[in-house]
Amino acid sequence: MTDAAIDQALAGAHQRFTEGNPESRRRFDEQTRYMPGANTRSVLFYAPFPLTIAKGEGAALWDADGHRYADFIAEYTAGVYGHSAPEIRDAVIEAMQGGINLTGHNLLEGRLAKTICERFPQIEQLRFTNSGTEANLMALTAALHFTGRQKIVVFSGGYHGGVLGFGDTPSPTTVPFDFLVLPYNDAQRASQEIARHGPEIAAILVEPMQGASGCIPGRLEFLQALRDGATKVGALLVFDEVMTSRLAPQGLANKLGIKSDLTTLGKYIGGGMSFGAFGGREEVMAQFDPRTGALAHSGTFNNNVMTMAAGYAGLTKLFTPEAAGALAERGEAMRSRLNALCAQEGVAMQFTGVGSLMNAHFVGGEVRRVADLAAVDGRLRQLLFFHLLSRGIYTSPRGFVVLSLPLSDSDIDSYVAAIGSFIGEYRALMPGAK
Q1: How far apart are CA 385 and CA 380, in angstroms?
Q2: Strand pairing partners for 154?
Q3: Cβ 43 vs Cβ 162: under 8 Å
Q4: Cα separations (Å) of 178 from 134, 297, 368, 392?
Q5: Which residues are within 8 A (CB) of 4 and not within 5 positions of it... i.e. 6 or more apart?
Q6: Which residues are registered as beta bridge partners of 238?
Q7: pLDDT digits (tens, 9 = 90+) for 240-293
Q8: Please, where are the H alpha helices in 120-171?
Q9: Which DSSP helix (H) or strand (E) runs through 18?
Q10: How many whole angstroms separate alpha carbon 220 and alpha carbon 354?
Q11: Can you tell me whether residue 15 is helix, strand or coil?
Q12: 296 by DSSP, 3-state: which?
């Protein structure tokens, strides 16, 4: 394997992509005049230019040049229902007919709140926001005021929204709270640091499975150590389940049997609309009760009728607890097939994850934290991305794979076959190839 060979293969993939997508290229070039990099959401950009998606239906997408793709990224987990599910579309239209901006408590927010609290028993009370980012910011604010402390324990590789990202240190755009960044899945280190800084710690914020850093599952002993540590020092354990709440009938934390003090939600629970929520113990959430509480929480669209209607329809008619469990089982079976294929082909490639979320990695051995992926050659991820596009599969340039309800068994078979053809075409460039 040589750098020159990988560069040559990637240059060829870029050329074929550019030649095959002139309309997306034209739109990208035009829009750079009005948006930096023609972009307003960084994760959607990739070189040489991103596709412009024109429409979606079910589990299919069409780009501006008319190419059809099976959708294996599903709006980075928000699109669990696929595109334009009739049940959600009808609910939104009905809500709009009653007026959109009502400037008051409405008929829809209470039933969605009740549905969520009944679905996730660790959430005794909640409040709505417009994104998972907002939900995490408000949960941390609640913890700071409830405990009267300032320090927040987070983990390298953690992503909790656009202003809450962490490498070994906070990302440049992260809000300037007092963070203590620790390695993920290191129970001993976490226990030691929590004990050492105990009187200063307001909250421990963690994903039960790190999503953006590569679908790295939290080990049970690690998450339990965080629960035990928080209890001992009087801090609040905050589980970010914006992604992972979809990975089991009542969320991943409940499946693991660990109860948080606060939980944050987002993405799919809004039925495909902008959505976030934070909630948990009643005595913590009471701080936001305008009758007696000390904390204000505003947001013009927190209880907007379209999200409230879409969220309720989605959770009660489509993504029921039974459906969540079935989708998770499909994901487990798919990941097992993919890992068996990689092992059979003798290449250092694997898929990590839980349930309906997974990530491709060009590395052998166990992946416990983001540092274990440091040796992965990003050019191989790009080659995989463009190879999948050429096979009619739309996914993420970082190898992230998301299942949605409308995906068919034949779609999954096509994805597995595309991984096989990728290995066949690029075996000589992959680590560990025999």
Answers
A1: 9
A2: 181
A3: no
A4: 18, 22, 25, 45
A5: none
A6: 205, 262
A7: 999 999 999 999 999 999 999 999 999 999 999 999 999 999 999 999 999 998
A8: 132-147
A9: helix 3-20
A10: 13
A11: helix
A12: coil
